Amino acid sequence: MRASLILSLCVFALPAVAQKNNLRAQVNTKADALQQQIVTWRRDFHEHPELGNHEVRTSAIIAKHLQSLGIEVTTGVATTGVVGVLKGGHPGPVVALRADMDGLPVIERTPVPFASKVKTTYNGQEVGVMHACGHDSHMAILMAVAQVLSSMKADLHGTVKFIFQPAEEGVEPGQKGGAEEMVKEGVLENPKVDVVFGLHINSQTEVGKITYRPGGTMAGVNDMQIIVKGRSAHGAYPWSSVDPIVTSAQIINNLQTIVSRNINVTENPAVVTIGAIKGGNRSNIIPESVEMLGTLRSFTPADEKMLITRVTEIATKTADAMGATATVKIPYSSHYPVTYNDPELTQKMLPSLQQTAGSANVLLRPPVTGAEDFSFYQEKVPGLFIFLGGMPKGGDPLKAPSHHTPDFYIDESGFGVGVKALCNLTIDYMNNKTK
Fold first, then answer.
1. Which of 39, 218, 253, 292 is the most exposed place for a label (fewest CB within 10 A)?
2. Cα angle vertex 209, ends 219, 206, to 5°?
3. Which of 168, 243, 342, 372 does the annotation list as catalytic?
């Protein structure tokens, strides 16, 4: 009797395994067939980039594509966002997949024929516009995922919500946008999302590889403004002044002790950076005030709180010691939480990634001190954010142009791995939840 029970269980399990393998084979075939179309989409987006909250042309192309697949589409979410809902043939969980859409105010320098020549006005200045972070790749990949999954609609045990998000790179002062705004406008509701997956191309990871990290994977970020006020004087008579430039120099140097002396770097990294300093307009005039702008990066709420406290203490007390005053605003205009990969979810979905790219090509990565507003989705539902290789095979990560630079470059041959990864994460999560 026991043997017959075991045999019956094995017979019951075989169709499920066969179906899973069949769906994975379908994903592989369909994704491979779309490779050239993905490249075409990506190059079009790359040649016509748009800044955050201005992705009008971009979102129209995406919406038209989703509608052509029979996907229910909502436009104008958080200004220019596009959301598509695909209901599978069977009941099950709601899986959200996200791609960001905006470019950066960067003048492109790459020698590719589809390089951007777009110019616009940003923060009162004429700037170039470039997809210098890979969002063009993300959109093209998710458009292909939508095409693959919609063609397999009858076999899906659940619903897929495709989130094409504006303004991940932030917006001009005074505007709202990005993932935080999409969450406020209900993108994770109606239907209510159970889990969210996303990926980011990486120009310094070899093509064909996927990297991941459970827990804190990208830093939480606060921007900051420090205004130092002193007393103006002729540059020839500095003893008549309270010099805000010298005071600012002392503050900047003292801020560097926070990471070296207050952060336990054996547990988590942190960053304190001053990225801009503005004061004065002539060589022989000591100005009355100086403005500094900077960024704080951390991986835990406790470290974030400590960074804010120490920056405020050091800036105000250093200024006081110099006879000046300092006003500190943190955050000044933006704050992103830590991009936190739910450890249990990450562990459960790791086999899906390994079967997609091969175990040798799925690698644990160290924390990334860059930030991502994907974290706003992860604050509400469990999420997994992975990195997709975009560096040519055999390349040197130390020499590959980094993100947010004029020479940023992506090898397009690895896009299929990204499509397969998001499709398989979606299907495997659904099937695991409906067993």
1. 253
2. 85
3. 168
